[in-house]
Amino acid sequence: MAKPFVNDRGFIKCQCRRCLNNDSHQFEDLESHIFRNGFMFGYNQWIHHGEPATANARTTVAGPSGGIHERDEMFDVLDDIISEDADEDAVGGLSSYDQYDDLFAALQSELYPDVSSFSSLNFLVKLMHLKVLNKWTNKSFDELLKLLKLAFPKIDLVESHYEAKKLMTKMGLGYSSIHENSLKDTCPVCSESRWKLQSGKRSGKNVPHKVLRYFPVGPRLKRLFATSKTVKLMRWHSTGKSKDNDVMRHSVDGKSWQEFDKRHPQFAGDVRNVRLGLAADGFNPFGNMSLSYSMWPVVLTTYNLPPWICMKAEYLMLSLLIPGPQSPGKDMDVFLRPLIDELKELWVHGLDTRDAASENGVFRMRAALLCTVNDFPARSSLSGWSGQGYRACPTCNEDTPSMRVIGKTTFFGHRRFLPTNHHWRSNLQFDGRTERKRPPRRFSTTDILEQLRRVKTGIPGKHPNYGGVKRKRGDDELNWRKKSIFYELPYWATIELKHNLDVMHIEKNVCDSLLGTLLADPHKSKDTDNARRDLAKLGIRHELHLFEDGNKLMKPAADYTFFEANQRKFCRFIRSVKFSDGFASNLSKNVA
Q1: 485 Cβ contact list (under 8 Å, min separation 6)
Q2: CA 404: distance to chain centroid?
Q3: Across-strand partners of 110?
């Protein structure tokens, strides 16, 4: 019946669930396409394939239960989700779509009688989005649903947040809760109860001490390729990168990325393979600083995307939510285990993924973690190199120049990074000596692995009789506390730049210290009495040494310190500075 309606190029509209009469294919391919994806719902009158249209014929979208609803924007979302499953399941029978019955029912259901602008599913998704953006509690969301039901008795909406979350999970937005030794009541190592106790007894409901929430990475990466809005952006690092070798505006322009491509040409051969970055830090979810609690989210970003997109909140992927109340510290690797296992799987085997921009349809997607981005304490937890002590610098490693001053360890020798003919190298005001040393040596991958080979394996945990016992490091272990779990990734040792420092934290701390010192802020200035005593101990900057005037200890004013008149000029200048819209906050509000 439909064959006479093939166009002059041999194409005909396809009635499968993926194409929905919007795309055309060769007539010979039509049968296999419908067999793989399944026949679209609601297409009962074949107006595109020869059957005459009646007065009430219209473009419809229908679910498995047979109801009909006008085309809804959520249908495109479901189409992407179902297309992923269709490509994974070559059979593509109707039974493969049974799990989506509730979603189709909500999609074809009117939110309220005679209201066609919203389907029940569309309204629920937008309501859940508002909940996240405005940080509504689950209880407040339940109360809102009750109010809507009370005000509009005929509204077709779920009864509670639990039901809403259960429905959203079918769209691939769920997570898995991980309980270690979940079938046991006590820890097999230290025999501690795995349940929270009240007054020494277990409460009526079993509540575990810690629950790790893991959000699988693979399905989220697949969704980026299955969606027509993002699939082309996933190739930007190859098609849109800067042509100027002297300009760096994205990680693809850096040496580490380019060296990685040279060492792994098979991975680099397909531009659709995914490059990831990882960030982790602790925060207090209660917003109450009097309550000590530290929860650690582990977030992934996709560096295939352009720089103006890859750091936007909607493209950041939460992969782990590590519970508190204490930070994981040296036990970070225990919580990273499910993520590392999936990253290894994505590197070695990959995932069959639908490419919405390719005629071939499905390709084998692989992924690699290129780097981490953290502040200095979090870097220590992830890398295994301690950020404390005389060898705190992870770049200088065992050659870190440091010394003990009053109350703290200080690091010097920064002039060695200057050009050999720079006049500051011969200036004696820094430490009383001329700097002739070259920049610190660069430690190769072989050097680092040899150092890690000497590190003893510690016991994780905070139990006082097990992992909680502090172990003194040997001299041959340097500042290594552990061999990071990232080294289980087959490619990790070959990456040039593994850990990046978050510039925001460094800029803020340096700016606070600099301004505090210039303005002689008693709380933030680094020009303290102990700092002056250190100058006398080192025998430099004699004009700044403390001296006694009778019974008083006098502190000479430094050339870099602003007096009151200069402080007022500086503050007036800061108040007058104007920034472009969105570039910075209004500084004038913070200047007295």
Answers
A1: 333, 336, 337, 340
A2: 37
A3: 119
Q: Which are the contacts of 189, defined by CB distance < 8 A and separation ≥ 6?
A: 461, 463, 466
Distance CA(532)–CA(546), nearest Å, equals 6
* Half-sphere exposure for 129 (CA within 13 Å, toward CB): 7
Q: Which 8-state DSSP code applies to residue 549?
A: E
DSSP annotation of 16 reads B
Give how far Cα 396 sits from Cα of 22, 272, 281, 443, 451, Å: 60, 36, 24, 8, 14
pLDDT tens, 226-283? Answer: 887 888 899 999 888 877 777 888 899 889 999 999 999 999 999 999 999 999 998 8
Query: Hey, what are 411's tokens?
Result: 């690091």
Residue 573 CA, chain-centre distance (Å), reads: 38
DSSP string covering 142-203, please?
HHHHHHHHHH-TT----SSHHHHHHHHHTTT---EEE-TTTT-SB-TTT--BSB-EETTEE-
| Range list of β-strands (E), 200-309 | 201-202, 212-214, 274-280, 296-302
* 101-108 vs 120-133: helix crossing angle, rounded to 10: 100
Looking at this protein, which amino acid is placed at residue 105?
A
**Beta partners for 16?**
39
**Residue 222 CB coordination number (10 Å):** 22
Over residues 430-479, the pLDDT tens digits come to 777 888 888 888 888 889 999 999 988 877 776 666 666 677 778 888 88
Give 55's contacts (C-beta < 8 A, 6+ positions apart): none
Residue-level pLDDT at 284:
84
> 532, 545 in Cβ contact below 8 A?
yes
CB atoms closer than 10 angstroms to residue 186 = 12
Q: Please answer whether residues 37 and 86 qualify as being in contact, where contact means their C-beta atoms are separated by less than 8 angstroms.
A: yes
Bridge partner list, 367: 274
Task: Please give the torsion angle defined by the CA atoms of residues 421, 423, 428 and 432, in that order, rounded to the nearest 10 degrees.
Answer: -30
Q: What global pTM score does this model have? A: 0.77
How far apart are alpha carbons 430 and 122 in whole angstroms? 66
| CA dist., res. 569 & res. 591, Å (int) | 12
